[in-house]
Amino acid sequence: MDTSLGAAGELTSIPALLARNAREFGDSPANREKEFGIWQSWTWSQVAEEVEALALGLVAIGVGAGDHVAIIGRNRPYLYWAMVAVQRAGGVPVPLYQDAVGDEISYVLEHCGARFIIAGDQEQVDKILEVEGQVAALEHMVYLDPRGLRKYDHSRLTSYAALQNRGRDMREDLTGELDRRTAALNYDSTCVMLYTSGTTGRPKGVVLSNRNIIETSKNSAEFDHLRVNDEVLAYLPMAWVGDFIFSIGQAYWSGFCVNCPESADTMMTDLREIGPTYYFAPPRVFETQLTNVMIRMEDASRFKRWLFKVFMDHANKVGPKILDGEQVGFGDRVKYALGNFFIYGPLKNTLGLSRVRVGYTAGEAIGPELFDFYRALGINLKQLYGQTEASVFITQQKDNEVRADTVGTPTPGVELKIAENGEVFYRSPGAFVEYFKNAESTADTKDAEGWVATGDAGFIEADTGHLRIIDRAKDVGKMADGRLFAPKYVENKLKFFPNILEAVVFGNGREKCTAFINIDLTAVGNWAERNNIAYASYQELAGHPRVLDMIQSHVEEVNASVAADEMLSGCQIHRFLVLHKELDADDGELTRTRKVRRRIIEEKFADLITALYDSSPTVSTVTEVTYEDGRKGSISATLSIRDAAVSGGSERIAAE
After folding, report:
1. Residue-wise pLDDT tens digits, 496-513
2. Please, which residues bridge with residue 247 across strands?
3. Which of 55, 305, 564, 623 shows the smallest number of beta carbons within 10 Å?
């Protein structure tokens, strides 16, 4: 099959790739979804028909060329089809985070001027109805799941199925117009608009063209030899660029099958049933999986714990070498094979990772021990580095060149350079077109030669060409004594401990570093249960003296590790507190992709930061919170502040 863009010519849009897939492997599965406990499947030919019917319906209700159509809901084939149908109709899909609240939704809808929105269910419809008065352009809403919506005012509501049926009924009248719009799409046409997480302000609309998405999908898919018989599980937010590349870009380029779980609650079960061959998860997902494994092992018999330890120790020694094709002795291979039979194989099956041929993690640094654990099992877990503005891929790790401390080498077609201040710049076919309605930010981020500023500080290893990321460039600063301050570096080390969910380090311009810490309720709760520690709430557990002792030991272990790095030794944590609540996107403290909003946290918890630096042993505070139903409330707490031992040079400076 010739998939050369130059030769084929026609493969310059996602709808063109869909047409190619329907022709060339029309009977192969394109999508699966588990609903009511049963897996349903659609072939590429069936998907092409579903997309066309919806696209005709969209034309029928007035979607015009260039219109922005918002899409919100959980991962479902129908909503992925909607994104392609909008493109076929000449529009621009704008996926939203399904857990976004009213203000976030209204801002995006108003900013992009969306006239139409496709919503997954009653919950999403209700959120739109609450804010529709704030969105001037919004005309009509399409809903997928009709449950609970029968008595709603349908003058501006249409069901997804009814819209498809309307499209089928008007096929003869509208096919010509639809085909003209689809044929007009080219490499420079907008493929999708995705909004950034907005760590420092309002989210920006990132305009990505067909060239951006298709070239990036082509290069990254060929890098990892993705093929038509691969399987992925689509469970990450549809508004995130990674999901769009994996579930639309690479899927449509390679022709593999995208599987949607029944719900977030059944995701792990559905993962085991599908057994994906291509898998992506952020470090927190891998950490949660490993934490659950270790919790189960704590409850296992003494013999099983011994067997697990013996074979895992051996796997850690030789597993990564076997995976990378290095020389390993015959006896070690035999023992590893036995371990695979008794431990590694069943464990991978439990995790749903038995068939993973290519696995990736990104978004945050992953702990070396965690990374090595999965590779020791024989799972080809690698790291990539990317961002929305790059259509994801900037660097990837090649097979047999996988390390925990780098993010790999440039993805094919990508160029890298490091500015004098250490900021990483890239140039690639995936580099975004512009920020929508924001020429100033576009010019600040991408120069006339196409170089894009990542906002991250890092360096390229001279001998290997691997990129190493230190921190966000805007967060890198100086301590009062002039030493380097890189909070993310320390935060990632803290989050390598399963008991720590989140950490925020302070210290820029100050004499010493301090930190807020969130405990992981699942991991610490299980530990508390095994140690006969009773608690009634997150707040009570987070403030328990033995929990504070445990977190202090983690902080001091990180301090010892940081002290060994001469360049960053000043970033050791002198004082910390465990927050009385989890940092939450609904409270504005995190983005929807769980990135820390430092400025908001510094403003919101200014009293706690003051206490960390004025030697107070405790601090009382009142914090506003948002409940699941959107109501506001407040919680009061008195928090203990702990001093942590520091090592090396920092200790001497403190003493002076």
Report:
1. 888 999 999 999 999 999
2. none
3. 564
Q: How confident is the model at residue 309 (pLDDT cuts 50, 70, 90)?
A: very high
Tokens 């608009």 found at? 193
Of 536, 547, 471, the residue nearest 505 (C-alpha): 471
Look at residue 563 and tell me whether its pLDDT is greater than 80: yes
Instruction: State how far the Cα of 38 lies from the Cα of 34, in Å rounded to an integer.
Output: 5
Helices 521-530 and 283-298: angle between axes, nearest 10 degrees? 10
**Is residue 440 packed enough to be buried (19+ CB in 10 Å), middle (13-18) or exposed (0-12)?**
exposed
Q: What distances in angstroms separate CA 117 from CA 75, 95, 234, one per listed residue?
A: 16, 9, 21
Q: What is the chain's length?
A: 656
Helices 14-24, 210-223: inter-axial angle, 10-degree rounding: 50
Average pLDDT in the 244-273 region? 96
pTM: 0.85
Which amino acid would we find at residue 398? K
For residue 409, what are the β-bridge partners?
396
Q: Give 335-375 as a DSSP string.
A: HHHHHIIIIIHHHHHHHT-TT-SEEEE-SS---HHHHHHHH
Q: Which of 214, 229, 263 is the last residue of a domain?
A: 263
Q: Is residue 368 part of a domain?
A: no
CATH number (domain holding residue 604) = 3.30.300.30
What's the pLDDT score for residue 200? 61
Q: Is residue 596 part of a domain?
A: yes
Pairing of strands 381-387, 392-396: antiparallel
Question: 18, 84 in Cβ contact below 8 A?
Answer: yes
Domain total of the chain: 2
Tell me whether residue 163 is exposed, middle or buried, using C-beta atoms within 10 angstroms of its C-beta: 0 to 12, 13 to 18, 19 or more: buried
Q: What is the CATH number of the domain that holds 13?
A: 3.40.50.12780
CA atoms within 13 A on the CB side of 101: 15
Q: Could you identify the residue written with the tokens 């999986």?
A: 289
Last residue of a domain, one of 211, 234, 263: 263
Is pLDDT at 656 greater than 80 in this prediction? no
What are 591-623's pLDDT values in tens digits? 877 788 898 999 999 999 999 999 899 999 999
Q: How many CA atoms lie within 13 A of 585 on its CB side?
A: 16
Cα–Cα nearest to 447, from 389, 382, 370, 529: 389
232 in any annotated domain: yes
C-beta atoms surrounding 412 within 10 Å = 16
Write out the two tokens for 45.
Answer: 């030919």
Torsional class of 482: left (φ above 0), alpha (ψ -120 to 50), beta (otherwise): left
pLDDT, tens digit, 9 for 90 and up, residues 428-470: 999 999 999 999 999 999 999 999 999 999 999 999 999 999 8
Say if CB 90 and CB 45 are below 8 A apart. no
Residue 19 has φ and ψ, to the nearest 5°, of -60, -40
Q: Tell me the CA distances in angstroms from 372 to 367, 377, 379, 403, 536, one per residue in order.
A: 9, 9, 10, 9, 36
In a domain, 165, yes or no: yes
Alpha-carbon gap, residue 501 to 520, rounded angstroms: 5
Q: Which domain holds residue 527?
A: 477-655
Q: In terms of DSSP H, where are the helices of 255-393?
A: 267-274, 283-298, 302-323, 330-339, 345-351, 368-376
Pairing of strands 381-387, 415-418: unpaired
Q: Is 38 exposed, middle or buried (0-12, 13-18, 19+ CB in 10 A)?
A: exposed
For the segment 92-101, what is each residue's pLDDT rounded down to a tens digit? 999 999 999 8
